[in-house]
Design brief:
Layout lengths: L1 H26 L30 E12 L6 H4 L11 H11 L4 E2 L10 E2 L1 H7 L2 E8 L7 E8 L6 E13 L4 E17 L2 E6 L2 E3 H8 L3 E2 L9 E2 H6 L6 E5 L14 H21 L3
Antiparallel strand pairs: 1-6, 1-12, 2-3, 2-9, 4-5, 6-7, 7-8, 7-9, 10-11
Length: 284
């Protein structure tokens, strides 16, 4: 009888210890995934303010359109990660999340690339949803035909380019050649007949998007300890790009009057012209 009582007491103590251990596990804080408690994650920063600018101080100005291809090595931080983690999101994910929250406004594509017609997040998604009716023939007798519906949904991993509209200007008050990004446009790459072609989705007014981009981390391939945001990448121009259009009397793109290697030469000519103008101002 005494042995039975002792066993019951020991069993009760074990159950109490197990419950205490379970409660301790529930109450314990989750593991720190990194060197610090924030895990090097979310930051709450503000974009660097633009320097003051008077219209009278702008003695020269040129509008440039350029393309950032995310498949280039230096630009891959715009494309990845495909799945958000540790507060890291791809560029298109940051933009779409902001549009869904109503933090920024998207504008429809226009021939002049102006911010004219606002678009909602739902309208953008619905434009990429397509239903295709197709007729197939069964591979066995009686080889009858049947109809099939193929649904195409929005796939943000197909967004592989960014178009940038920017103004270069010379500020005579500071004696500097400066640039301001005016708009950004995500571009989806689609395939048709075995060929790839770009489809611009919408324009974003860049100054409006800067507060959102300043809080979104981007991978820094040189140093994990030095955190960068998408606003830093654009502000410091840490990307590779090529010019596809400059302001001209015909309002045409380079591809409309040059192709192949000639188009590349023309793109480089436009970039060199900007820096040559600044250098010529200091020649005596």
């Amino acid at each position: 009888m005494k042995k039975l009582s002792i066993l019951l007491i020991l069993f009760s103590l074990m159950m109490i210890g197990a419950n205490t251990s379970a409660q301790a596990q529930i109450l314990d804080e989750p593991p720190v995934d990194g060197l610090f408690e924030d895990g090097g994650g979310f930051i709450n920063t503000r974009p660097v303010p633009y320097p003051p600018l008077r219209k009278a101080d702008v003695m020269w100005q040129r509008r440039i359109w350029r393309t950032v291809d995310m498949r280039q090595k230096m630009n891959q931080a715009f494309y990845y990660p495909l799945e958000p983690h540790n507060h890291w999101r791809s560029f298109i994910t940051v933009i779409l999340d902001a549009l869904k929250e109503g933090s920024i406004t998207a504008y429809d594509i226009s021939p002049t690339d102006e911010f004219l017609v606002p678009l909602t997040h739902r309208e953008i998604i619905n434009r990429q949803v397509d239903t295709l009716h197709n007729t197939f023939k069964r591979p066995y007798p009686p080889y009858d035909e049947y109809d099939s519906l193929i649904f195409t949904i929005f796939d943000d991993t197909k967004v592989m380019r960014i178009r940038i509209k920017e103004d270069w200007y010379f500020d005579k008050q500071r004696s500097q050649m400066l640039v301001r990004i005016i708009g950004i446009c995500p571009v989806m790459m689609k395939e048709l007949g075995g060929e790839e072609f770009p489809e611009p989705l919408f324009w974003i007014y860049f100054p409006e998007a800067r507060p959102i981009l300043a809080k979104a981390l981007v991978y820094n391939r040189h140093n994990d300890a030095m955190r960068l945001t998408y606003d830093d990448v654009f502000w410091k121009r840490i990307f590779e790009s090529y010019v596809y259009k400059e302001s001209n009397v015909y309002d045409r793109k380079i591809a409309e009057y040059a192709s192949g290697i000639d188009a590349l030469y023309e793109s480089e000519r436009i970039k060199d012209e900007i820096f040559t103008f600044e250098n010529d101002l200091w020649e005596y």
